[in-house]
Amino acid sequence: KCEHSRQISQSQEELTSSSFLLSRLSKPCAERMASSLAQHSVESALEKHLPEEELKEVKRILYGRPVEDIGSDLPESAHKQAKEQNFALQAYRISAPAEQIRSARLVKLGLVQNAIVKPTTAPIVEQRAALHDRIKSITECAAQCGVRIICYQEAWTTPFFFCTREKYPWLELAESAEDGPTTKLCQELARQHNMVIISPILERDSENLDIIANTAVVIDNHGAVLGKSRKNHIPRVGDFNESTYYFEGNTGHRVFETEFGRIAINICYGRHHPLNWMMYAMNGAEVIFNPSATVGALRSVAWLAV
Fold this sequence. Notes:
By secondary structure, this protein is an alpha/beta fold. 36% of the residues lie in helices and 16% in strands. It is built from nine helices and twelve strands. The protein has helices at 2-19, 27-38, 42-49, 52-63, 76-84, 124-144, 181-193, 274-282, 298-305; strands spanning 68-69, 92-93, 109-111, 149-151, 196-205, 211-219, 225-230, 236-237, 240-241, 256-258, 261-265, 287-289. Helix 5 (76-84) runs antiparallel to helix 6 (124-144). It is globular, with a radius of gyration of 20 Å. The relative contact order is 0.12.
């Protein structure tokens, strides 16, 4: 047991210290390093050293109860669109005990982990326009699958630049949460698909000294902006000193009432703070989303854990 603990601890240190380097490397080099990290992650260490039954129990403790894969139940048209436009499409059912008095309330949620479309050397307006087109297609596919609340990834209209220490031209992509081009696009999509949209963007608050914030905009299924929730914990780890780019959030632990449930958004690094989750829940959230963007082998681990 002690030997296993040392190996797992060492794997954690390697993953933490090495994953931050990936964004600085060329793509082939980054891919090779990511592949190497995947072989030395906590996940792979557990799979290597634990018997099958113990591994199942450890994963249950880490990730919660196993979920049912229902990808085969999705419309064939959605699978076809995903294949043609080169994105993965997966679906799972998270069950709850049946109640004797109240009827079940079933809500389909969509989670999007996107990728940039244009190279980062392209004009930034073209980069954002390409991402807008990409998200339109993905949202249309989600609508075919009956999704009622969709959450895009953290700062989805920008490349992942938070560990490069480059402020320009990337901060030019910051925009108004209330009436910026991305919010206007999401309002159209929400009305078109009868869908609540959580759109995490880099926000420029022109009414408050042009401060920059890492913000999730919430748009209801009729296209109205319900409000915004700002990232309230900023990482200061290695190259990830994100206070270089934006301020810590001042919106508290807001919960948004929608037709499909009460929702909250705990952006990225906030997931490491248990009291964050607790406060959203105490304020009435039924579903708490964790939009994030990160690098290397850490991506899949964070996705599973949250």
